[in-house]
Amino acid sequence: MDQDSWDERCQDEGLLWTAEPNRFLVEAIDGLEPGKALDLAGGEGRNAVWLAQQGWEVEVVDWSDVALDKGRELARRAGVTVWFTREDLRQWWPPGESYDLVVIAYLHIPYMERHGVWRAAAGAVKRGGRLVVIGHDRDNLDKGYGGPQQFDVLYSVEELVGVVAEHLEVIRAEQVIRSVETDGGGRQAIDNIVVAEWK
Ligand SMILES: C[S@@+](CC[C@H](N)C(=O)[O-])C[C@H]1O[C@@H](n2cnc3c(N)ncnc32)[C@H](O)[C@@H]1O
Predict the structure, then answer these.
(1) Which residues line ligand 1 at a C-beta cut-off of 6 Å?
(2) What CATH number does the domain containing 138 carry?
(3) CA–CA separation, 174 vs 196, rounded Å?
(4) 38, 125, 136, 177: least surrounded by Cβ within 10 Å?
């Protein structure tokens, strides 16, 4: 999806996703001392706002003005400060070794582009810091519910680990099941998560 499509998708009233943080992210940072966090493709800010509520100093980078405006509003209502910046992650690189936590949740772009974003994200983690990447698993296409339906924007845990492990030590890498309530009843989505730290 291009930038205009993301703007259109976020245009409707209300949030495209939930205002609740992603539960795998909540698990992945359990016990970490809050510091400086970067949320790449942070969209409407649900994860960033939650992180800020936990004491993190958070920056969101996303290319959708509409999503970012919703994120600003979510932060305002929650009474927290989050810095929102509009950039195309295919052409923008965060400063190296600068963040205690870097998060990417559900960024689905083609192969070469996502590898560039993952490398930049891993390089932005500072000594003692952590990278958390969560996404729709490639297996979700045939066996799970929802998510992107284009094969080329989906990836496996192995692909993600292959890139992240160039810079960081992977401490968790697996498929995870996310329960989804639909009008037709409960369904299961297959996600994946990779958590990595400085070697
Ligand atoms: C599925 S949403 C996920 C939002 C958020 N991470 C979350 O979990 O709630 C994907 C986000 O990726 C953003 N995005 C997609 N391609 C991008 C790019 N090239 N540069 C910056 N943001 C991008 C979209 O604008 C959208 O907000």
Answers:
(1) 6, 17, 22, 41-43, 46-47, 62-64, 67, 88-90, 105-107, 109
(2) 3.40.50.150
(3) 12
(4) 177
